[in-house]
Amino acid sequence: MRKLAIIGASGYGKVVADIARRNGYKEIVFLDDDDSIHECGGYPVIGKSTESGMIDADVIIGIGNAGVRKQIQESIPDEKLVTLIHPDAVVAEDVVVGKGSVVMAGAVINPGVRIGKGCIINTCSSVDHDCEVGDYVHIAVGSHLCGTVSVGDGTWIGAGATVSNNVSICSACMIGAGAVVVKNIVEAGSYVGLPAKKIK
Ligand SMILES: CC(=O)SCCNC(=O)CCNC(=O)[C@H](O)C(C)(C)COP(=O)(O)OP(=O)(O)OC[C@H]1O[C@@H](n2cnc3c(N)ncnc32)[C@H](O)[C@@H]1OP(=O)(O)O
Fold this sequence. Notes:
globular, about 200 residues, single chain, 2 domains, mainly beta, Rossmann fold, UDP N-Acetylglucosamine Acyltransferase, domain 1, about 30% strand, binds acetyl coenzyme *A, 24 strands
């Protein structure tokens, strides 16, 4: 199997490397702009984030910040980008997962779901039937989208948060850890608590 270059030698990047290894990548390298980092998860950092075009390798972004992830992903030709799904994630057959997205261990994605590009579907989260997840969304560890939820581009669903069925959340929102979203959110911002309310 081909080589994989992961941009971003971070904690998240380390998890991405583990998923890549389980998907059969034999050679994994990192690219990062921090000169002081030489390895990540036991894999070498061999250059800067802008150098993926010079390497004959598949590419994925290992950066948690949605804005940075988007900026870097959109500078890379689509044919170099891959999608990674942990072998212990449960993903229904008709689910569409966009380029550059990563689905982590224990995640469950049920039928009729569409996940955009550059998303993180993190450990033990669930995305239930017919959800529409935009681009560069992060469904953080242990959070749950009930059925027919829509999440706009760049939104972060915090760890352990729950979004009730048939609810829409617009782009550029931060849903706090443990929040419960029971009504549509139509204005960008940070929302916390039960029921989730805007804080700024
Ligand atoms: C593998 C991984 O690690 S994946 C990463 C998972 N991590 C997460 O999901 C983290 C999600 N982030 C949060 O929950 C954050 O607290 C945010 C984004 C909601 C708010 O962060 P900030 O904008 O920095 O807000 P700040 O910390 O200043 O808090 C503002 C107020 O909201 C409260 N608040 C913050 N987060 C929450 C929350 N999740 N639930 C309830 N109240 C909260 C604070 O106590 C504070 O209240 P106060 O003004 O009465 O003191």
